[in-house]
Amino acid sequence: MTNTQLTLVQIDNYGPWTVTPDPRREMDLQTLQSRLFADLAQFVGSRDGYAFFTRFDNMVAVTNGLDRDDHELLQESIGNRYPVTLSLGIGADRSPAVALERATDRIQRAGSAQDGDRREVLSGETLADADRSDTDLQIAHFDVNDATGKYTDRLNEFDTFIHIEQGYASLMRHLREEHGALSFFVGGDNIISVTPDLTEDQYRAAIDHVEAEADVELKVGVGTASNAHEAGFAAKHALEDCRHRGTIVEFADAAVETADD
């Protein structure tokens, strides 16, 4: 049974900061956001977690294996190097959606995202070692079948982007509403989903739904492990199995060895 630990990462008072004392240059803001996400991804990834940019001012991290001290160090590191601070809410549950709701509630109870007096909140409990197992996380890595041939080599970039995003939106909504899973676009034609225990039939149903609704064909590799890196790396191997075997759903062999992504 899965037991997903998620951390909501929220920039404190970010909206007002972007226009105080005057509106800031847009590319300066985009640069700050991209660098901040890169540092978050590097910090969490070095501890075998995953990070997703979502809306950049609010980001989601899969933090199984990170404890409270790790979260405090992240806040300290960002606070020392950026003109903004981070509040962190932590939640855990077999359902990723419920875990995120719990993490979100922790921050919301401490005050508004645009409250100038709310800074560096850290709320929520991390999973104790005794409560962790090798099946805590199920990660599904989707990609679009022949995206290069169907879109990249035939259409302009924006129309390609529309097709990919429509597929992502359809998958994201379906998995969230049907299973409490959380799906994130990670670039190119790739989507990573953090899911509860789903079966092959449930993944096939999701793929069929996206094809029917958005006319985008997907395949998926699925991995399970105690942390996001190991589960995600196993999912990548399973996705390669899809390519070699011509299948649309593959689960990773439990013996897959992990390496640096």
UniProtKB/TrEMBL annotation:
Keywords: GTP-binding, Hydrolase, Nucleotide-binding. GO terms for molecular function: GTP binding; GTP cyclohydrolase IIa activity. Coiled coil: none annotated. InterPro entries: GTP_CycHdrlase_3, Nucleotide_cyclase, Rev_trsase/Diguanyl_cyclase. It catalyses: GTP + 3 H2O = 2-amino-5-formylamino-6-(5-phospho-D-ribosylamino)pyrimidin-4(3H)-one + 2 phosphate + 2 H(+). Its EC number is 3.5.4.29. Pfam families: GCH_III (PF05165). It comes from the Archaea. Belongs to the archaeal-type GTP cyclohydrolase family. HAMAP family: GTP_cyclohydro_3. Catalyzes the formation of 2-amino-5-formylamino-6-ribofuranosylamino-4(3H)-pyrimidinone ribonucleotide monophosphate and inorganic phosphate from GTP. Also has an independent pyrophosphate phosphohydrolase activity. This is GTP cyclohydrolase III. It comes from Haloferax marisrubri. The gene is gch3.
